[in-house]
UniProtKB/TrEMBL annotation:
Residues 149-203 form a coiled coil. Keywords: Coiled coil. This is Uncharacterized protein. InterPro entries: TPR-like_helical_dom_sf. It comes from Alienimonas californiensis. SUPFAM superfamilies: TPR-like.
Amino acid sequence: MAAAKAIWQRLLEERGEDPVAVTRVADWLRQAGDAEGAKALYRRAAELAPEDPRYREYLGEYLHVLGESEAAVAVWTELAAGENRGVKTLARLSEVLGGFGYDERAASAAAEADALDVKEAGTADPTAGALEFADRMRFAELFSRAGRADAAEGQIAKAEALAVTLEERRAALNAAIDADQAADRLEDRIEELKATAAAEPQNADVRLRLALYQDAAGDPALAAASAAEASALAPADVIVLATLTELQEQAGFTADAAASARRLAGLDRQRRADHLMRLAELQLRLGQQADALRTAREVVAGAPGSPEALAFLSRVAFRTGDEEAGFDALRRAARNATRDAGPLLALADALAERFRTDEAVELLWRAFADDSFANAAPAVVVTDTNRSGAAEPSRLAPPELDAMRSATLRLLTDRPADVPGAFAAAAKVRVWAAGRLEQSKGSPNLARPAQRAILANLLLAQTALERPEHRDAARAEFAALEEWANAHGRIGQEYLSMIRELHKQADGAGAASADEAATEAPAP
């Protein structure tokens, strides 16, 4: 530790005026358990860059972790104090305080930001102010958490005025419903909306709100009826028709939902593919297999080269029993996805499910071990520096993959395999992949060989899991892979859920094997 601190001190001497370097040393001291040293350096970084709020946020966060709540709040409050006080800085202060659970203080900061916004804009019209839709929605949540129901309702109304996209409009409506549910006034609001709808027979918006409130109250049939009235009054309103489709589906009115989805696909050209996909799913549910397949082909016609559209067509084709159409779509998707192994893996899965094992295995290894799968673009070569200082190409795959490939193929075809040697190779591959990710510096292209190598480990472990004599080794590899994924940030997280699911299956297989052994054991 003394040697490490000497290195950190040297960094401070060389770059002591750089807040980034100072913060980095503070992080190291924090990890080493030197709380006072870390606090002093976080504070120093904030003083070096008073115009950058991040450093005050870092200091406040550490004080909060140490349990020094009042000191943390005092530091964060400086974000919007004196000359820094403004609508946006107050909004940020409310976000920071709310993020750490200081709900009442966060709500107070939000109220200040709202009042200052009105003052500076010279009007209460939210569209004239500096606060945006996301700010208003966050304020509504903070007020709701702080028990200020009326203030939350006011922010939701302002958010609705600022909503531009369909998603924002729907999010604001849902927030209003959530606030009323939290305040236990859902039924009262429904009665108010019914009265308003009766008084305003041409008001589609009121009927849409009524439909959503009725849905929240657990009455999907009434909700669908109210949404149908709203759609009749506003036939060109996409959000009304999308809500109607959803509510009809929830209420079990599948044929009506399919008809609405077809209308929606014609009305909302921007999301036509999504609406057609939904329509195809509804048609399958109705037993209209030929219609579903035609609809899936419409999805592809709208985006002929899209791997996602082709993958959807393949799923529909398989569900309708047209296997050749399904395989054809997946092959086209694999050819078009030059930088994504997903369609190739989907094709391999489909082949394996239909007992075409040899084809499936070859495709899997193209995806996992070969850098030129599916007509891939030329591989990106990373250079390492050898001992002489000259640049040399970095391998795009570790040599241990050959042993893993051989063992996996032999296991899949019920031939003798050096499984212990393959798992020893897998351990080396994990180390290689970690180094490769470090080299990649966050570049997806440069990280891809490491990702495929880890997928090869998964394939080996999952294959070995099918053999009782190798299940312990498979479970150990899944545990090691889970640890690896946890240690490698965003890229590791992409695999974590898959690894955990397979690890769970491995544990289940082990338990089942033990039960079988206990059942088969002779009675004493």
